[in-house]
Amino acid sequence: MEEVPHDCPGADSAQAGRVASCQGCPNQLLCASGAGAAPDPAIEEIKEKMKTVKHKILVLSGKGGVGKSTFSAHLAHGLAEDENTQIALLDIDICGPSIPKIMGLEGEQYVEDNLGVMSVGFLLSSPDDAVIWRGPKKNGMIKQFLRDVDWGEVDYLIVDTPPGTSDEHLSVVQYLAAAHIDGAVIITTPQEVALQDVRKEISFCRKVKLPIIGVVENMSGFICPKCKKESQIFPPTTGGAEVMCQELKLPLLGRVPLDPHIGKSCDKGQSFMSEAPDSPATLAYRSIIQKIQEFCSLHQSKEENLLSS
Amino acid sequence: MTAHSPTWGSPDTLVGSTPASSGPTPRGMQGQHGKYSECGNLAGVRHIILILSGKGGVGKSTISTELALALRHAGKKVGILDVDLCGPSIPRMLQVQGRAVHQCDSGWVPVFVDQEQSIALMSVGFLLEKPDEAVVWRGPKKNALIKQFVSDVAWGELDYLVVDTPPGTSDEHIATLEALRPYKPLGALVVTTPQAVSVGDVRRELTFCRKTGLQVMGVVENMSSFVCPHCAECTNVFSRGGGEELARHAGVPFLGSVPLDPELTRSLEEGRDFIQEFPKSPAFPALISITQKILDRALAQLS
Fold first, then answer.
1. Which of B135, B134, B121 is nearest to B163 (CA)?
2. Segment-wise mean pLDDT, segments of 10 residues, chain A, 309 residues
3. Which residue of B has its CA nearest to A9?
4. Where does ATP bind (chain A) (predicted)?
């Protein structure tokens, strides 16, 4: 699928294989036969695999660098504090897999007995290795992660995503379509340049009918370690996540202040919440994690009521 | 020069209404890549610089915009090509969001951000009907638009074309590089923040550059430190040291550290010319120094 014509209508489009630009494409006959429009058998296979996974949460943003991976890691750590809960953290950022570093893993896949991690980062032999893959290959990897990894009995599967609204996001939603995702947690920072992209992500979620658990505003204010006064490093020039959530009628799950120790903990692969249990950022994380758990429990009991009625 | 505004419709129908289908094909645009280099819309562009990172949110678009403004102050004519299709940030940074894009015989006319037409911009942001509409495209469709952005924008005569990219090493990057290769880009400026998590991704971007034969002009470390406006205490909010170490490890020049300045963020949000308005900012000397190095490098390449 490397040689795609200039105006390819898309393999799953109704015009696949039938328009002028399809002439000469090696996949023309396949597309015209309608094979591209048939549902991928992997979707059913993944649905089966996901039967042992109680809750699935996607961590999204439109914007890069807002703290998705940091948040995913700490959500996983927070949920895993209950030893009776089994947590899985799946990193589908194929080009920039940060999760192994943030979780302090080099090649092992278990942080704790009840916290397992999967990432393309584990499959790369050197930290300099680049994954220079086009969309279709990335989609294949994500399919493999979901279908071929033996997840076992999992209470929460957290999926960390790259920024944007492209292949990875479409694929994970498509492949988990039959397995049912509880919802998405959207991460942003306060400034408009981030919110601009986040609104697109929210629009994407609504388009693919993905429920939104709520929004987390990261890097929300900075307390100077010397004078203890607050500054806004990323000024909320248009009202920050609060105004955006009011406009879009979404819950604001919480605001996490910028604590320089968060970055340091991530660099060391340690849980910031364990290293700084009294930090305002830790308290913010814990409150947000609790709200997510409540959402998932409410959602689960609603489903059970539906099934029993 | 005839001009008319195309009707863009929703992002999903974007690629259907292309300049190539609605106007005469410019001379030299047909055929293989190799034939582009002597004619075509990039023939009048002296130097092409790509702004890359592996990591999102390190400030590529900010650095791209600041670099363009600084080059303008140095008397250069600059174009900015924003190939971040999912998160096109630059129109807002230059206060030109919502502007219409017109066509001419050679293709799309870029949007000029000033009266003197010293900065021209092309971004998918201009082609969206609604600013919050998401561009939810898979790779092949993105590749097609990027190829058009590179070949079908009538840039005219430019001293510098700054190409802002999304994070990663995927479709957009491969497509952009393939399309730009015949025009021999000056090189790439690679942006990181100090912490290891960022450096971890940017190392992979440097490998991408090596594998694709793209010269790396150097590494810029952004968000290096924050000076408290109340007490002037300097804090390393995103760890420290990563940028310089990365440059050393990869054997490429370290171009400088740019500190965090909320005034810079604010001025970009409000579309103001930071270089003009904030020469006293802690970020200013770093940005000017980086620009000077690029100017020196361009001069060295010409001679």
1. B121
2. 58 73 73 69 89 95 92 96 94 88 79 87 84 86 90 94 88 88 96 92 93 96 89 93 97 95 90 92 96 92 69
3. B141
4. 62-69
